[in-house]
Amino acid sequence: MQSLPVELKLKILKYLNYESLYSVKRTNRQFNAIIDKYKEELPKKEFYSLTLKNLSDNAKNKYVDKLYTPKIPLNNTGHEKKWLNLLKSGKFKQFCIYISSNNERNYQSDLESVRVLLMKRSKRIVNRFMGFYQTNSFYINIPFRLQTIEQVREAYYWLKQLSTCRFVHTGFDNFIFNPEMLKLIFGDDSELIQFYCKNAYLLLNEPNYNNSALKFAAGHLQKCRNLCLNVKGVNEFTDVLKFLLHSDVRITKVNVNCASSIFSHSFRMRDLIIQHALTSTDCSKMIGEIKFHSIYWTRPVLISKAEKIDEGESRSSKKYTKKEQHQYYQPPQDERFKFIKYELINKHNPRIKFLITLWFPVGSEHISVFKIKRMN
């Protein structure tokens, strides 16, 4: 095995699950280097969901099976001296580890109760009426303020552990990890703290919080396949537009629910996105697929620059909207929708093409769902 080429070793390791891979790493040190080097490609410890949740004592007893209490390493080479200086200068006291989407909650008694809630699915149970998964839930207590070197070590340990896991869903609806605090803890390595997930849910509802939330998403949700932004009461779209068009993130697609914001009637947002796809000399930083739900938009004027390639009707809401979370409006199943698809070609580079899809309730000229997707 030791004489095998690296490519073949890597191929073999990919067939292992996380537990087997961890066992190999502990018992065969010659594999440590290759496992560490290619850790992004190898299996990770899997959980169904990660949520930052305010857990009262009653909630802890109701939802949580077990508290994770590991042995925290006493020394983190390369960081201890920096942390001690930050503690001495009072830098850590300027920030909390969490930020709440509700400004009224950003005080000690509320943030002190926030826990990282992990849920793991076990076997599927089927009875005569329905099928469901058994779940086990755990919570992690990361100190919300870092006042001692022991607390910094604990936060460092847990955040690093979470970045080696994989999740189906991550819920940042009410709280996020403070990107400024992550920068203090990890320094130049803070960008390595990524939350690997299929779906991430993020609430945007207030300018100051939105800035931190989008900064967190751009810096630490790079490995997310589908980011769902639930926009509530937001009257300014500049930050969101910048994130969608210029943030240079590797998120595959972004779904924006506009039901409770000015976005639902903001034609300007729509026009700026189409204009960017049509006229920009650099589309490399634009999210590959952007979809707006629960909108009431008129047909874009710039759509005349695109070529219509398909149209039709659909009866099911599943044809045009996500069903995974309650944030998305679900219309009656018998409601009919018309869709029109267009191909838009960038005027500076004909090889860059976009597929624009508009959905209308039948009988209406207002768009209810808008999607733009890069085709190459």
From TrEMBL:
InterPro entries: F-box-like_dom_sf, F-box_dom
SUPFAM superfamilies: F-box domain (SSF81383)
Domain F-box: 1-50
UniProt superkingdom: Eukaryota
CDD domains hit by this protein: F-box_SF (cd09917)
A Pfam entry, by short name: F-box-like
Protein name: F-box domain-containing protein
Annotated source species: Meloidogyne enterolobii
